[in-house]
Every structure is written in structure tokens, then in C-alpha cells.
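Escalated from tier 1: adenosine-5'-triphosphate holo job.
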Amino acid sequence: MSDATPLETQQHSAAPDAPTAETLLATLGLWVELGWLRRVDAHLVRFMARHVPEAPASVLLAAALASHQLGRGHVCLSLSRALAEPRATLSLPPLEQSEAHLAEVSVALPEAFLADLDAGRWAEQLAESRLVSVLAQADSPAGHLPLRPLVLVGERLYLRRYWQAEREVAAGLRARMGPSEEGETRVSDALGERLRELFTSNQPDPHGAPDWQKLACALALRQRLTVISGGPGTGKTTTVTRLLALLQAQALSGGAGGVEVESGVVGSVGSDETGHLHERRALDIRLVAPTGKAAARLSESIRGAVAKLEVPDAVRAAIPREASTVHRLLGARPDSRHFRHHAGNPLALDLLVVDEASMVDLDLMAALLGALPAHARLILLGDKDQLASVEAGAVLGDLCEHALPPRYSPAVCADLARLTGETLDEAIATPDVLETQDTADRGRLADHVVVLQKSYRFSADSGIGALARACNAGDRQALRAVWKTGYRDIAWLKLSGPEDRDLEKLVVNGYRPALEAVRERRPAREVIDLLLEFQLLCALRRGPYGVDGLNQRVARVLMRRGLIAEERGWYAGRPVMVTRNDRALGLYNGDVGITLPDPAAGGRLRVFFPVEEEVSSDAERDGQDTEIQRFHRGVRAVLPSRLEAVETVFAMTVHKSQGSEFRHVVFVLPEGANPILTRELVYTGITRAKSRVTLAGTRRETLEGAIERRVVRASGLVL
Ligand SMILES: Nc1ncnc2c1ncn2[C@@H]1O[C@H](COP(=O)(O)OP(=O)(O)OP(=O)(O)O)[C@@H](O)[C@H]1O
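Tier 2 regenerated the structure:
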């Protein structure tokens, strides 16, 4: 600890008038030691400095910060933002430490290196460097751009790979927004009629709002790219299942019979080498989600939606019920970030549905778009208000940024009205937004995005729904009103401290059914299903209210109550989450399993992970399967020693809970304000609950402050 004031500290330690590259490199080393910068960021900059020795400190610092931003989900570094809030680019002060702490650390802070710069001057210095290629705008031609490790686009600095990925994503999406090779498409009136029939079961809105599910479906019939965003239970799966039914009915009819299609028709264009557009062939449709759990949930809800469809059996049979992960679809290769499918070896499919698209990061989206054949339709489903992907990028959020209020071009509005019979508010058709190039582009993207806002899961008297809405609006007063309303499905638990007895009781009662099922040797799948009834969520990893501390405490309490036999190592009842993809084992980051004595291995412990199995065996149907078969149904067993990256998951971070749902969620908030605790995080945590949510914290103000803090990810995705 030093006695120096912040200013003195910065002046004497490392901030001469014009800091040299050596001073900067030495400081980066100290930042790494303090945990402010990732080791990889400092390595990268040292590598650059070795190869371009004349690079000034300002350029090397920009490189370090641009690299560091990736670890925080930003695709690039905004120079102006870094200048406005230099400490925020390194997330300073560190978690659980105050500004005062920075004064005590004897190391230069980022602003010491930025003092004499403005965005223009900084950009000039970058542009002069051999480390940087310069592009005026994101969509400027990049034909002869020199191959350099950094790319400056306007005032955004990228590591080249991420600039490339962002450009590929933009190009891939833009290509799908225009007419296909077969020319303009026009959905026939007959298909519109089928569409209206399929949606007749939807109750009209009491306030006269149009049926947005039907409109979303019509929009997706018209084009090759459609983004459908909506909170939990707003009918995304229902809508997309009806869309698939319409398209399959059309494909199977070959354009004749039940569904008449007009020239340049939507949907019947497969990868048909004969050139026949109207061959009777079911479309090759694939469903994917970013994680195994999300894929399992999609399979389950698609099955539910298909069962409710009123369509001929042949159409029903042509709708897939199994979803896979994006990685599996693309053909992930062990130890490589390259996939088997890419532009040179595209996927063989006609339509791809990607659920939980908010979790798909920029790199993966680039790979997915690259592997998609030109004719294929892409439907992205997700919730724009949720946390973005763990890795860099926020593609769904970027695509939906201007989605509300909805604004469609007049031509689209006319077509939607023709197909759906819905009357669209005049405000929705906005020729005025087409005035400038910028808004014209935005207008075009807007024609591909629809937001479903009415939840069928959380009815008007649902506290979870009201809480989620108040949170999304960032409205403290609304939040207070929600607590006062006395909803039965939400509760506030005031914590006296991390060892709070009421919290312990809740958690013990929450996990008791699953752990008793373990003791009773019930089949593994039953135990897993019981485990998913309850989940303790945390905002943070470290600290007394973080996952690490809570996991230890929960295990101790459960052992005291006799529900588990050990609190460390491998024990029956230990739930674990995979924290790193293991392609050899077919397990992915976020997969959850439970440790149980395996009757097929003489009672030795194995970790059981759920697998999707729709078809039951003859023996199973006749009730002839053995006890061991019953125990292993719908799961697969893995030796604990083969699991290299797992952690106990009595408590889970909200980040890791994305794509999962639980009947009852207890969400523990940290003490005091924290930059990690944002509106998106709180919303995501709350909406993991299907029927009950308990928010636990020492002060309600923490929650109120959180919903006013937003995650803004730097990116430059321009469409
Ligand atoms: N228009 C509607 N009228 C009545 N019920 C509906 C309607 N649309 C959907 N539902 C019902 O609401 C529930 C949620 O629908 P669905 O699964 O399609 O929503 P989702 O947006 O995909 O949800 P999630 O985000 O959880 O995946 C289902 O039980 C579905 O049958």
C-alpha cells in the first residue's frame, strides 16, 4: 500500500508527459498481475511491439484494450468511449473494491496514457501505424486492405479476426435480406388463406391489437431471413411450428392441390439439381440451439406445438421434433475451431431454425451463416432483452435494436395485410424512415424483424411477468408497485447475511425431492427432472453471495440434513455442470448431470446426463425392460474421472442458466451495486422461473439500481 495520492501515484509511477512503449509494456505487466488485464492481451501487445518496434504507446494501448474488450463481450474498442471512461475499459475498480482502492495501488491507470489524446488524434496515430488497416465505414469495400492485425473502422478498433467475423455476419445476413436467385418471391393468396386458417384458434386481442404471431408467420413466409424475438411464452415456438407446417404442406403438394403458389414461389425451392422448382419433396428442415440444454428444451416445446397442430398427418410427420446444437450441426472437430461445414461444404438443408439466438456469439454466427446454402431460409428465435452470448458479440440484440415500435416498409405492410387479413396501424408503415441511406438500411432490416410481446405463459395476474416487465422498463416505481401488489408467484427474501437461515431452509426444501429420489435409487432421468424443479441462481461467481461460496455452503447444509453423504469430491447426489466443451465425450459447456450409484456398475458412481430419446423400445412399451434399463432410460453415464472440467451446481450463475428453465428459482443478489448486476442479468434470472421466483438480497435498492444499469456491447454490425 502507498501513501501517495492518486495523482502523485500516477505521476511518479508511470506517466511521464509522453509515455514510451517500454513504460506501457511494463505497466501492462502490472495490470496483468493485478488481474485488470488478461495475460493473453499483454502477450498479444508484446508480440506486436516486437514486430513493429516503432509502434507508439498509444497504439499498443489501443491494441491491449481492444483485445481486453473481447473478454468482456465487446467485439471492438470504441475510442471515444475509452477516452470518456478510461477506467471502465478495464472494468475498474475491480469487483468488490471501491474507487479508493485504485488510489492505493502504485501503478498508472489507463487515463495516464490517454491524457493528451482525443479520438481524432488517437485514430490518426493508429492509422499511421503498420499494425493497423483503416476502413472508412463498416461496409466500405475492403478489397485491398493490407493484412494487419488491427482494423480501424471509423472510431472502432478491432482485432482483425473479429472485424472479419462481423463483416461475414453482415454480408451473410444482407444476402438473405435481398431477393433469392430465383428472383422476387410472392406468397400466393392461397397460402395466405392456409395461414389464416392455422391461426383461427388464436383469440382476438381484447384491445384490438393485431395478431403478431400470425404477422410473424406471414413475414417469415415472404423471405429468407426472419428474426422473431419475444419473452418467455410469447409463442415463438408455436408460431415457427405453424410456419413449418405451412411450408411443408406447400412443398409436399408440389405447388398443386391444397396450396396454390405463384411464380418464383417461396418455399418449394430446394437444392434441386434438375431445376424443377415444384418437385414434391419435403423440405429439409433443421432445428438448432446453442447449448445441449436449450436444444433439449426446443425439442420438447416443438413436440408440444406439433401435437396441437391441426394439419394432415403427412405434414405433421414432415416437421422435425429433434433439435441439435449448432456445433453438432456444423460438424465441430475436436481441438479445432473450424467446422466440417463451411462455404465450400455447405449444409444440406432448406430451412434452419435457431432458437435462443441471443446466446450465439459473433464467431459462431459467422460460421453458421457461412455454411448455410444460399437458398435456405433462416429463422432466428430469441429474447432480445436477455443477456447476450458469453463470447464476444450481441448479434440478436444488434438486429433487434430498432425493432420496437415495429416499422415496416409500405410494400411489406400491404403484403402482410393481404396475407393475414390483419389491419396494421398506419404508424407501422413508415415511408418517412426511408429518407437517408442510414435509415433506409435500417428500414430494410426492420422488414425482417418481429417482436412478440404478449406472454401466454405469464398471464395478467402473474407476478413473474409483471416483475420482468418492470425490470425491462428499468422503472423503479413500477418495480415497487409490483412488490406491493401481493402476487403469489414472487417473493422477496430479506437476507440477514450469507448464512441466512430462511435461505438455507428454502434451498434444502428445494433440493430435497431430487436428493430423496437419489436415496430411493429412482431412475436417473427422474432424478434429473426433479433437479430441474429448483435452482439457486447468483449474479456473481466470487464473494459470499457468489456461486463458489454458496455452493460450498449449500453442500454443507445438505450434508448436515443427511441429504448427501459428503460435501466434497464425488458423492451421490452431486449435480455438476460441464464448464468446457468436450467433443470427444459429446458434452458441451453448460450441460448438467447428476452423480448417482450406477446399478450397471455394481453401484459405483457415474455422472448421468440426459439424452433425448423419443422412440421407446418394444420391451419398454411392454413393461419388460429390466431395472437397469429403466435406470438408464433417457440418460447416459460418464465416468467421473473422465470429466475434466465440471463444477458443482447447487448454485449457478445467471450467465450459465441461459437456455434453461426451472419451476422455482431463488435468485441471490450481491450486497450493494455491482457493474455485473445489470437489467439484462436480472431479467434473464427472473425469466428462468416457470412458476415461482424468490429474489433474495440484503437490500431492495440493489435490485432497483441493477435495473437502471444496462449492458451496452460495442459492435459495428451494420445492415
Ligand atoms: N396465441 C396463443 N393463444 C393461446 N396460447 C398460446 C398462444 N401462443 C402460444 N400459446 C401457448 O403458450 C405456451 C408458450 O408458447 P411457446 O412455447 O410457443 O412460446 P415460446 O415463446 O416459444 O416460449 P419459450 O420462450 O419458453 O420457448 C404454450 O403452451 C402455447 O401453447
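Residues 245 and 311 are 7 Å apart (CA to CA).
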